[in-house]
Amino acid sequence: MGVITTLTRAWLTRTFKPFHFTNEYDNMLDYQDTKGLGLYVHIPFCRSLCSFCPYCKVVYDEALAEQYIEALLKEIDMVGSTVGIDKKQVTSLYFGGGTPALLLNDIDCIIKRIERYFTITEGIGLELHPKDVTEETLAILKAAGVSKISIGIQAFQEKYLKLLGREEFDYDEMFKALKRVRFETVSMDFIFALPSQTIENIKNDIETAFNNGANHIAIYPFIDFTFTDRNFIKMSNRRKKKLLYEIVDYCKERGYVRDSIWTFSKNGTSKYSSMTRENFLGFGCSATTLLKDRFKINTFDIKEYQRRIKSDNLPTALTLNFTLRQRMVYYLFWTAYSMRVSPIDFREFFGESLERNYGFEIILARILGFVRKEKNQYIMTTKGSYYYHYYENFYTLSYIDRMWHLMKNEALPKELIIK
């Protein structure tokens, strides 16, 4: 597995130089002239911990949550106060977790603090557990300025919820609340490639979502992180590939628009994605920041996060300073998630030609049927999307899994070298 990612990275970056994350960091972030900047806020609290979830989270504790919010607001001040007299224009703000709605009464305060320094142009998104989709909660979020919500359904069928460690839930109240309080985007998340799962099961989930308030869905394959628990046998790659093709064909037949590798929208305009942004600032424990020449990740340890902030230091745990080629590969990998890569956007971002840097790879991808050229963009095919996922799985286990496993065990690691 590591050999595949190592050879691919070496070929695309034209060097065997590894990704070398260190504990050195700047206490001021140079983002003021960054274009297309997004924002992310991490809320790490949950009522209970789902076994399949790899994200940074702890069981909710009121006193700890109050201390966390205090530190989070100070981190926003530390980063935002360097923007200057005029507010910095950003594209979007996303709240993830954890379960952000557990701090429902703090969301408005966090947004107002962010708006001291930033002007948000494309809306505010927030993740929700189905239990939190009540009329009262939705009304409070909408009044705070939230315009997009993503509900972590995973599956409507009880047998799959049990596999994922989720308890059965009565969705009638959730559906009623979504009818009464409207949002620009209502996305519902699902996991596919679970044991014995068929296209009929998934069709049922898709139609239940779109018939009950959703105008956007995300259907992610199950990823088996080494530090999470799984008590079932994984679906074979052959069956997973067949299921993906069936999902894509079904959504196409129904007129649902595929706007990224794993997402489809009912009207072609509703979007919810915190992953396809060129640059972003992250606030909170485990939050990442991606800028033109660097990537940084905050400590996963809540107590250490608070200690760093209290001592007037950013809670950065690891930093990677990109080479130009490394940044190009990172850009292309996550831009491809949107199913399209624009040579014009690539040149605007890097000041260099996409074809001059990766002409051979593009020709090969077209020959293999992974991409096609359309209106001066390279569009990923269904075949290409399957192999993107296949490689993403290797990348996730060779890179993200290693990083998160380290961060969960060490609050402030000395370094991380990924070859």
From TrEMBL:
Pfam families for this protein: Radical_SAM
One biological process term in Gene Ontology: porphyrin-containing compound biosynthetic process
Keyword annotations from UniProtKB, A to Z: Iron, Iron-sulfur, Metal-binding, S-adenosyl-L-methionine
Ranges for domain Radical SAM core: 31-257
Gene Ontology cellular component terms for the protein in this record: cytoplasm
Record GO terms (molecular function): 4 iron, 4 sulfur cluster binding; catalytic activity; metal ion binding
PANTHER family for the chain: COPROPORPHYRINIGEN III OXIDASE (PTHR13932), RADICAL S-ADENOSYL METHIONINE DOMAIN-CONTAINING PROTEIN 1, MITOCHONDRIAL (PTHR13932:SF5)
Designated name of the protein: Heme chaperone HemW
Organism this protein belongs to: Acetivibrio mesophilus
